[in-house]
Specification:
Keywords: Cell membrane, Cytoplasm, GTP-binding, Membrane, Nucleotide-binding, Ribosome biogenesis, RNA-binding, rRNA-binding
Bound molecules: guanosine-5'-triphosphate, magnesium ion
Largest sheet: 6 strands, mixed
CATH topology of the largest domain: Rossmann fold
Radius of gyration: 21 Å
Helix content: 25-40%
Subcellular location: Cytoplasm; Cell membrane
Strand content: 15-25%
Shape: globular
Main location: cytoplasm
Family: Belongs to the TRAFAC class TrmE-Era-EngA-EngB-Septin-like GTPase superfamily. Era GTPase family.
CATH architecture of the largest domain: 3-Layer(aba) Sandwich
Strand order of the largest sheet: 2-3-1-4-5-6
Number of domains: 2
CATH class of the largest domain: Alpha Beta
Pfam family, one: MMR_HSR1
Structural class: alpha/beta
CATH superfamily of the largest domain: P-loop containing nucleotide triphosphate hydrolases
């Protein structure tokens, strides 16, 4: 028997918005813990996803897409979160969408650390059909930074993720595991519940999504083998409530049903979910819309 040392370390996943960072992390760890959507700026918080093998533990750090276009407090906070993540990890996955290398990608490249191994991950391989163009693109991307290695994957279709793990593993330091082997994230169930509702809001509100909308878990109770979760969607103005609720409560009903199903899968138990909308400043006009519309 060979004595393989146990390895454990942190791996940041960075890139411009929408390249598929969260999708990649979810597929690497085999659980959907980080929300994803077609829209840019889906991830707002750093989320650690843990993947444990017999001889290694990978702690992936999913980061918000690095913002270049809109300045403002929120974007600055998101960008600082990316920079912080880069400072304290053992390896970095820099994600590019295959065949696309833009100014926004280059802004992230400018932040990449010089002393930490950085692996270039070309995602959305399924969209790049022409092998010749793909290898030319890899050369073009490699010319931008001294990447330690490169891998081409499709996060969404789970392609070549084993190969990617093989390239990351040697960069993890020798260490005992930092988390229990059955743990998939360091985030609480409460946090994950709020994120799941946020994902459905992204999905169903389209372009109408109020930019500064927040989601807050007001109560999270364990009731026997079931979770009872009460979530408030906080909007800025009274006029934004109907956007979230939809005609006859239809949108909110869809959002809460889908969120409940995802929660049941992730938490592996029955969930009672109530979602309601309120205006941030005007606590007095809180309305329990779900109750009004008979949604549960
Ligand atoms: N075709 C294809 N689409 C993908 C692949 N990976 C991710 N996507 C899609 O790309 C979109 C963005 O994915 P996310 O994982 O939310 O991207 P992100 O980089 O985390 O985005 P932000 O959190 O906003 O920075 C979603 O619609 C995904 O389904 C892939 O391998 N192939
Ligand atoms: Mg994301």
């Amino acid at each position: 028997m060979t004595d393989t040392p146990y390895r454990c370390g942190f791996v940041a996943i960075v890139g411009r918005p929408n390249v598929g960072k969260s999708t990649l992390m979810n597929h690497l760890i085999g659980q959907k813990i980080s929300i994803t959507s077609k829209k840019a700026q889906t991830t707002r918080h750093r989320v650690n996803g843990i993947y444990t093998e017999p001889n290694a533990q990978f702690v992936f750090v999913d980061t918000p897409g690095f913002q270049t276009y809109h300045k403002g407090a929120l974007n600055e906070a998101l960008n600082n979160s990316v920079k912080d993540s880069l400072a304290n990890v053992d390896c970095v996955l820099f994600v590019l969408e295959a065949m696309r290398l833009s100014a926004a990608d280059r802004e992230v490249i400018a932040l990449l650390p010089k002393k930490t191994p950085v692996i270039l991950v070309l995602n959305k391989l399924d969209k790049a059909k022409d092998r010749l163009l793909l290898s030319a693109f890899i050369e073009e991307a490699r010319a931008e930074f001294p990447f330690t290695d490169v891998e081409v994957v499709s996060a969404k279709h789970g392609q070549r993720l084993g190969e990617l793990l093989d390239k990351v593993r040697p960069h993890l330091p020798e260490s005992v595991p930092l988390y229990p082997e059955d743990m998939v994230t360091d985030k609480t169930q409460r946090f994950l519940a709020a994120e799941i509702v946020r994902e459905k809001l992204f999905r169903y509100l389209g372009e109408e999504l109020p930019y500064e909308m927040n989601v807050e878990v007001e109560s999270f109770e364990v009731d026997g083998s079931m979770f009872r979760i009460y979530v408030a969607v906080l909007v800025d103005k009274e006029g934004q409530k109907p956007i979230v609720i939809g005609r006859g409560g239809e949108k909110l009903k869809k959002i809460s049903t889908e969120a409940r199903l995802d929660m049941e899968q992730l938490f592996d138990c029955k969930v009672f979910l109530e979602v309601w909308v309120k205006v941030k400043s005007g606590w007095a006009d809180d309305v329990r819309f779900l109750r009004d519309f008979g949604i549960n």
